[in-house]
Write a structure and sequence with these properties.
mainly alpha; two-stranded antiparallel ribbon; 13 helices; 71% helix; globular
């Protein structure tokens, strides 16, 4: 296992574009801390984001994992490029000639995907702890370490998304086309949502119940938007008569759906590689 990971990390690090994108991703994660310094002057009213409670425990776990998950496309480009380069540079064929089986090849890619997801999760955990203990109004350990299920959801979300990107990289062979296909699939899911909600099930919530099984929607459902949880947003909503009944929790069935999709993507990647003439 160590040998497989070492081979893949060496490929990523020796590729300048992949190295730069990976560094940019982790640097951008650090920029979450800059949110604490953002202030808006609205006439006589000053809005300071840090004072709104975005870095309060345990809310910070929800907020940071949601913001960080928006940046996952940087590593997605690394993943699809990693696969596309195997075809472009002929390293895939060379690895197989050197004795690496197709199963080991896919395993090495998936382990790298898992390592990216795990490394990002640990990095975000440490960053959130630093920000939380620096700005949170509540620093008791029981409060600080509650709602850590958002970190689990973040890890599962990244692992699932990167596995999807890995499959697209093998399917299309070109990084630009793989990213394009990812966008097309996102459009397809949104069209499906429109058809389900307005044509097939116009007067019920069955459309959303079906949509939760689509891969990208399933990943999005793991971490819902956190902004409407802020007290200032709730206050404004109450003043204008809007009641917020949104469920922000991380549910076991949402995690299970993404885990199943992750397994499917890995198996499909292996089957596709098995059948393909290299």
């Amino acid at each position: 296992m160590k040998r497989l990971i070492a081979i893949e990390l060496q490929k990523v690090w020796k590729n300048k574009a992949s190295r730069v994108l990976t560094l940019i991703y982790f640097i951008l994660l650090c920029f979450i801390a800059l949110i604490a310094s953002i202030k808006f002057n609205l006439g006589n009213f000053q809005l300071h984001l840090a004072e709104m409670g975005i870095f309060n425990f345990p809310y910070i776990w929800h907020f940071n994992t949601y913001i960080a998950s928006l940046l996952k496309f940087f590593l997605a480009i690394v993943i699809v490029s990693m696969m596309a380069n195997e075809y472009s540079y002929g390293t895939l064929k060379q690895n197989l000639i050197d004795g690496l089986s197709k199963k080991e090849f896919i395993m090495s890619k998936f382990l790298t995907v898992g390592l990216f997801a795990f490394g990002s999760t640990v990095f975000l955990f440490v960053l959130s702890l630093i920000l939380g203990f620096s700005f949170s109004s509540y620093t008791e350990l029981g409060i600080a370490f509650s709602d850590l299920d958002y970190l689990l959801a973040y890890f599962v979300k990244l692992a699932g998304f990167f596995s999807f990107c890995l499959f697209l990289g093998i399917l299309v062979k070109r990084s630009a086309f793989a990213i394009g296909f990812l966008f097309v699939w996102w459009v397809i899911e949104n069209i499906a949502r429109g058809l389900l909600n307005f044509q097939i099930f116009p007067n019920s919530d069955y459309g959303e119940k079906v949509m939760q099984f689509f891969p990208l929607e399933a990943m999005a459902n793991l971490i819902k938007e956190p902004f409407s949880r802020l007290s200032v947003v709730k206050t404004i909503g109450n003043q204008i008569g809007v009641e917020n009944l949104k469920d922000y929790g991380v549910h076991w069935y949402s995690i299970l759906i993404v885990v199943v999709w992750t397994i499917i993507f890995v198996i499909m990647s292996f089957k596709l590689l098995q059948k393909r003439d290299l």
